[in-house]
Amino acid sequence: MRYRGHASAPPRAAEAGLEYCPVTHYSRLSKIVIDVPEDVHEPELAFWQGAMGVALTRFGQFPEYHGADLHGHDLGMLIQLLGGGLPRMHVDIHTDDLAAEVARLEALGAKRQFMAHATWWVMSDPAGLLFCVVPDERGSLNDQNAQRWE
User: Fold this and answer.
1) What residues have CB less than 8 Å from 108, skipping those under 6 apart?
2) How many CB atoms lie within 10 A of CB 76?
3) Span 50-103, pLDDT tens digits
4) What is the 8-class DSSP label of residue 64?
């Protein structure tokens, strides 16, 4: 990890006697994800397509997702078909350095839950709400479209 003993660390790391050694990287809120079980998937998909005025198309690599970029925003929407459970919403944070962003969020109080598709982390915030941290291509995030963390 990117921690060493020092008092200038973010609060959680400092409590553990660790120094946060920041790694310059970018991240941004990228997607609003609506998670729905199969019995309400089609009506939910139709509703949000109408509400947002965009066609939410099925992803080839991950067929449980339908999505699109939203007009006038640097933000997308996904409808995710759940295998079970209650409907809910979560956000996706995209980053150009997955390890650095996960470490930064953990220092703020987030917890890793599990790795999805061997690609991104599902995490929980201090209240227990789920969110995802998804890697983006190096160079796709910059000072114009994301937050730089140093």
Assistant:
1) 10, 11, 12
2) 17
3) 999 999 999 999 999 999 999 988 899 999 999 888 999 999 999 999 999 999
4) T
DSSP 8-state symbol, 70: P
| Alpha-carbon distances, residue 108 vs 39, 112, 134 (angstroms) | 37, 12, 18
Is 78 in a helix, a strand, or coil? strand
Q: Is 33 exposed, middle or buried (0-12, 13-18, 19+ CB in 10 A)?
A: buried
The predicted-structure confidence for 104-134, as pLDDT tens digits, reads as follows 999 999 999 999 999 999 999 999 999 999 9
Residue with tokens 């796709």: 140
Contact between 99 and 52 under an 8 Å Cβ cutoff? The reply is no
Set out the domains of the chain in order of their start, with CATH numbers.
25-149 (3.10.180.10)
The answer to whether 32 and 94 have CB atoms below 8 angstroms apart is no
Other CB atoms within a 10 A radius of the CB of residue 90 amount to 19
pTM for the full predicted model:
0.82
| CA gap 134, 121 in Å, rounded | 7
The Cα 143–Cα 95 span in angstroms is: 13
Q: Apex CA 33: angle with CA 79 and CA 131, to 5°?
A: 145
